Amino acid sequence: MRKRAGLPAISLCLLLTGCFGAPASGGGVWPGASEDSPAPVVLSFWNPFGGGEGEFVERIIGDFNASQDAVFVKQLRLESNEYYARLGTALSFGSGPDVAVVHADRLSPLVKAGRLSELDGPAEQAGFRFDEIDAASLHSVAFGGKHYAIPLDTHFHMLYYNKDILAQAGLLGADETPRLGEATPEGFVRSLKQIRERVPGVQPMAVNTPYFQEPFLDLYYEAGGDLLSPDGTRAAIAGDDAVRVLAFYQRLFAEGLSDLNDKTPWDSFDQGRAGLWFGGVWEAGHYLANPSLNVGIMPLPPIFGSEAHWGSSHTLAIPAYATDAKRDAAMAFIKYFSEIGSVVWGEAGHIPANTAVMTSAAYQALPYRKLFVQSQRTVKPAPRTDKYAALLTALSEELQSIIQNRAEPASGLAAAERRLNEILSN
Length: 426
Description:
Layout: H1 10-15, E1 41-47, H2 51-67, E2 71-77, H3 80-93, E3 99-103, H4 107-112, H5 120-126, H6 135-140, E4 142-143, E5 146-147, E6 150-151, E7 153-162, H7 163-168, H8 185-198, E8 203-206, H9 213-222, H10 240-254, H11 265-270, E9 274-280, H12 284-288, E10 295-298, E11 309-312, E12 314-317, H13 324-348, E13 351-352, H14 355-358, H15 361-364, H16 369-376, E14 379-380, H17 388-404, H18 409-425
Parallel strand pairs: 1-2, 1-3, 8-9, 11-14
Antiparallel strand pairs: 3-12, 4-5, 6-12, 7-9, 7-10, 7-11, 7-13
Helix pairs in contact: 2-13, 17-18
């Protein structure tokens, strides 16, 4: 058995090519330390990864723990709707995770408040190279010329389609890609009506009503919309483009082309009860592994005029309160996740931020990944503002109110814009 190393060897280890060895399988459970083998540094890793992503994260953590003996990672998985509230409280009190997932659009207020460690020095000591990360992702974690997180991926939505349902509806081509007619709202609705007429008992399209701000932004960005004014001081979601997009979704609900009351639309698609679904790339590994689901994936159709769409990015950050030993250990794990774990993360469906992994033959050979990379190029990044989290929460609540109460789009969006402007002005 390989001798267990203590933490002082981590920095040297990270500078040696292949120090971690090949990824191992299993959970990497630490069996305990003997007199001549120091106990590892134990890291608490907080993340919101559930559903289809969770199994891949468990593989990465297990592989890391089994690949070396100086660091042992334990994860705390929190529900996504409570994750940032708990993380923010923990960071402010200086007691919480040793390494944490932070979406790139959530970094700014944490950096401004001094809650996160600057990582340029620790990364250099660990042998981690920022130039191995794609430029757009790297820009998202840079503040004042310094980096405060390591990007893991870009994630966004694709159009998932049930091949069996589309074939029955007469909307599947010989190459097993959809034939959805002209790329306009009216053309898309005609296709959904054809599914309804020819395949009774299924939703033509499942819409993510529990997180409706995401499919709304997908099509709003397609239409050329922006969340904020160019100078970032005013909200910009009550114009004609936003009204058209919201009216489109309300039409789907009103005409029975999508079920407004479906609280788990991702399961409806997974169980073969929906023809189409704007789903995250992170769901690809799960759906493609479902033997009862004959699924295909393609970029979102540009029914509102362009290929722009919503997207975000996961990053790994280290709290400012971390000790030197914890920071070194966290960088060891982050380096592993980026350079080796990203292979598994790519299997989940995310676009790895590590360019060597993303451009590798193994990643490119995975099903539909070339289309994923194509769609990544048209992601519209979130505006950089300290108030993005509050703005997105408010937008989500206002949109929920509009669709659940069947409010008139123009007046509903005007009220939402006023609320966002109040946030921006305070």
